[in-house]
Amino acid sequence: MTKLVICNWKMNGSVQLVDSFISSLPQSNDSCWNLVIAMPHVFLSYVNSKSPRFKLAAQDCSIYGGFGARTGEISADILASIGVEYIIVGHSERRAHGDDVESVYAKMENAVRCNITPILCVSDDYESQITNRTEELLRRRRDAVILAYEPVSAIGTGVTPSIDDIRETITRLRSRYGVNSIAYGGSVTSDNAQDVMGINGISGALVGGASLKLRELSAILNPREFI
Ligand code: PGA
């Protein structure tokens, strides 16, 4: 199964860093992974024009759909027009800054309407983050959404749940919500990426801090070369 390595750069990066990544990152040579680039919005078109081999993801989108007088907003429709294939919604860092379940739902719905795959992030309290409406959308679009299990305690801390715990939660999420694609995020590095990616049925990983370091990311993608 081809796994997704979703690089969440958060509010980081520069044109110089983007350039060095584009020129240095390998193409998937044995198609065991697809590299999904979730750089800040402003870099996405640039990446695409330089190297169409990466899949583009946005880190967020507006709750509003379409186009119009919404200064500062970026809609899923605008993201679709530049070739974005995935949108991260409900990341804990956004929930902490005001995204409630209704706005996360609106973003997800906008992504789906634009034929973009939403990557819905949930933490250990997923029952309260997935409302009936969200669950209905997950079930209806089970093949076109990704659920990302991202325990808040693991994000940026270097402290991850055990592989068994991640496996268990992923299994529970799949049977509870019927979604086919489930990823894990939270302190994935070259030290644990192989174990995480090796979890039966996992669709991929969201990689934050480690995705900003070229050597780390290369080691996650091609562990054999770094043994
Ligand atoms: P981290 O971030 O890899 O730096 O823990 C992951 C995320 O926030 O998606």
Provide an overview of this structure.
By secondary structure, this protein is an alpha/beta fold. The chain has a single domain, classed as TIM Barrel, CATH 3.20.20.70. It is built from ten helices and eight strands. An eight-stranded parallel barrel has the order 1-2-3-4-5-6-7-8. The longest helix is centred in the C-terminal third of the chain and has 15 residues. The protein is globular. The model has no long low-confidence stretch (mean pLDDT 94). The structure holds 2-phosphoglycolic acid.
Set down the secondary structure blueprint.
Blueprint: E1 3-8, H1 15-24, E2 33-38, H2 41-50, E3 55-58, H3 76-81, E4 84-89, H4 92-95, H5 101-113, E5 117-122, H6 126-129, H7 132-140, E6 146-149, H8 163-177, E7 181-185, H9 193-197, E8 204-207, H10 214-221
The protein binds 2-phosphoglycolic acid (PGA).
- SSE series: EHEHEHEHHEHHEHEHEH
**Cα Rg:** 17 Å
Mean pLDDT, as a whole number? 94
Count of DSSP H/I helices = 10
Overall geometry comes to globular
In CATH terms, the superfamily is Aldolase class I
The biggest sheet amounts to:
8 strands, parallel, barrel
Question: What is the CATH fold-level name?
Answer: TIM Barrel
Structural class: alpha/beta
Low-confidence stretches: none
Spell out which ligands are present: 2-phosphoglycolic acid
Kindly provide the name of the CATH class. Alpha Beta
Q: Into which percentage range does the β-strand content fall?
A: 15-25%
Indicate the CATH architecture: Alpha-Beta Barrel
